[in-house]
TrEMBL record:
This is DNA-(apurinic or apyrimidinic site) lyase. Residues 221-259 form the FPG-type domain. It comes from the Bacteria. PANTHER family: ENDONUCLEASE 8. SMART domains: Fapy_DNA_glyco, H2TH. GO terms for biological process: base-excision repair.
Length: 263
């Protein structure tokens, strides 16, 4: 699933292409929106909220989308691609650009004043203008024995972190992903959270996500590197399930550097 920085970049591209411009084409290929026509509406802005995209229009409505695992929005110069992919779920165009949403996991149209019904459950956005650090730390500390890796992925506590930044920040701070979040010292939680946020912010400005120094060929420390040597100690990196079905995920970790003990 795309991380918060990927969604932020997507929102930025859509905003630059469509904000302040009238929509000249609208094709929403979603069962509940199939008869909706947004042609003639003007885009006010497109913003990210965690992993959600909010496309606000001048008629007081918001087109909400979520990329889930495979979704994307691509921006093309007019007239756009000659053939749309079979997974196309939305097409929005101005006089200059065509935005194509493919394999979207969610697509909703709601009054802007009711955006909270779609994103109100989310915790503070780590890419927001003012990150509520103390609020997020309190939320993590209140998780008791819940594995800290699982807590980091809970968008209700703080939104934007996915498996990549959870794995990388825990590795960099030598924290066992299966340690109870509530048992960790506050300074440890602070270090993990600020590390994750710094990586998210840094990667907003580049297309290829990287958490390692430019001097290393590998772009990540442990994520995506199962069975390969840890860049710090040489131990084979492991990937193990985290959480409970059906919301369980997998997380990469170094059992030596992090003293990891999957449950």
């Amino acid at each position: 699933m795309p991380e918060g920085d990927t969604v932020w970049r997507t929102a930025r591209r859509l905003h630059l292409a469509l904000a302040g411009r009238e929509l000249t084409r609208s094709d929403l290929r979603w069962p509940s929106l199939a008869t909706v026509d947004l042609t003639g509406r003007t885009t006010l802005e497109v913003v990210a909220r965690g992993k959600h995209l909010l496309h606000r229009l001048d008629d007081g409505r918001t087109l909400h989308s979520h990329l889930r695992m495979e979704g994307s929005w691509r921006v093309h110069p007019v007239p756009g691609p000659a053939r749309l992919p079979g997974t196309t779920r939305a097409v929005l165009a101005s006089a200059e650009h065509v935005a194509v949403g493919a394999s979207l996991g969610m697509l909703d149209l709601v009054p802007t004043r009711e955006e909270h019904t779609l994103v109100g459950h989310l915790g503070p956005d780590l890419l927001g203008r003012e990150t509520e650090l103390e609020v997020v730390l309190d939320a993590y500390a209140a998780q008791g024995d819940r594995p800290v890796g699982e807590a980091l992925l809970d968008q209700r506590l703080a939104c934007g972190i996915g498996t990549l930044y959870a794995a990388e920040s825990l590795f960099l701070r030598r924290v066992d992903p299966w340690a109870g979040a509530g048992s960790l010292p506050r300074e440890t939680l602070t270090a993990v959270l600020t590390t994750a946020r710094s990586a998210l912010v840094a990667n907003c400005s580049r297309a290829v996500q990287r958490t390692t120094p430019p001097s290393l060929r590998e772009p990540t420390w442990v994520h995506g590197r199962a069975r390969r040597p840890c860049l710090r100690c040489g131990t084979p990196v492991r990937v193990d399930p985290l959480g409970t079905p059906p919301t369980d995920r997998v997380l990469f970790h170094c059992p030596t550097c992090q003293g990891s003990h999957p449950r």
